[in-house]
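This entry is set out below.
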Amino acid sequence: MAGQAPLCRAFYEQAWCIRADHLHEMIAAGETNIPRLLRRLEAFERKFRVMASSEGPRFERTAWPKEMEVGPAGVPLLRPSSFRGNGALVPFHASDNVANFIVDYIDEAGPFDAIVELGCGYGRNLFDIYYGGGPQNCRYYGGELTASGVAAGSEIAALDPAMKAKFFSFDYLDPVLDIVPAERALVFTVHSIEQVCQIDAQLFAVIAGAGSHVDCVHFEPFGFQLAELGPATREHRSQAIENSWNLNFAAALQEAQQKHNLRISCVVTETSLPLDPHNPTSLAIWHSGEKAA
């Protein structure tokens, strides 16, 4: 039975709303170049973060812990992270690049006529894929739980109709993908299933229905569900239980493989450099249609 904490759903609606307001203000002030718009928001959020309060979420200047030495750029020189189950200190600006991975994957496994992100927020990854070398001759779809996320993505996409991007309401607890009429679809998720404490194996069947042939790439923090690689894995498990984050992604995917004739081609755990040392990204890729044979 799928489930998600009501407070989590409510927080993300408010969190994306405050980001949508910030984006709208920049657009109204004349910032209509989409890559610049997104990079400006990222630069702002390197020094400010969304904080919950009794009056609702708001941006506050980040207060760095004393042990994190702040450098001349106004951010720490190093930050705590983890890799393959163990803690690590990495350069503050080091990060994983989901968009580059997807662009490279399309080059190897494409072409696709639809690229779909589920739980996309305001669509940052989709825009980064398109402007980072992704295909021009396909449609981009962003499925998002929050109305504020859908509205923000749609406002950004309207700045460049040539991208052919469309945003729509999507709920992991009642997943529907009828809006994606594709022959070959690439679907991906990035730390969006993590907030759904329990998912149903039927979710993967719905994703497989997005096209006659579907490749699905998950960047999700499920490594602790498969193997303990070190102390960071143990902390990850404890944090997931404490916060009611997802505990059954791996089991549900394996069940779907048996029930819905999916082919899992890649599973690699805890290979990212996460901002939260105890919430590392793992990778899973599966296929339906001809690639499932």
Notes: Residues 1-293 form a domain with the Rossmann fold fold (CATH 3.40.50.150).
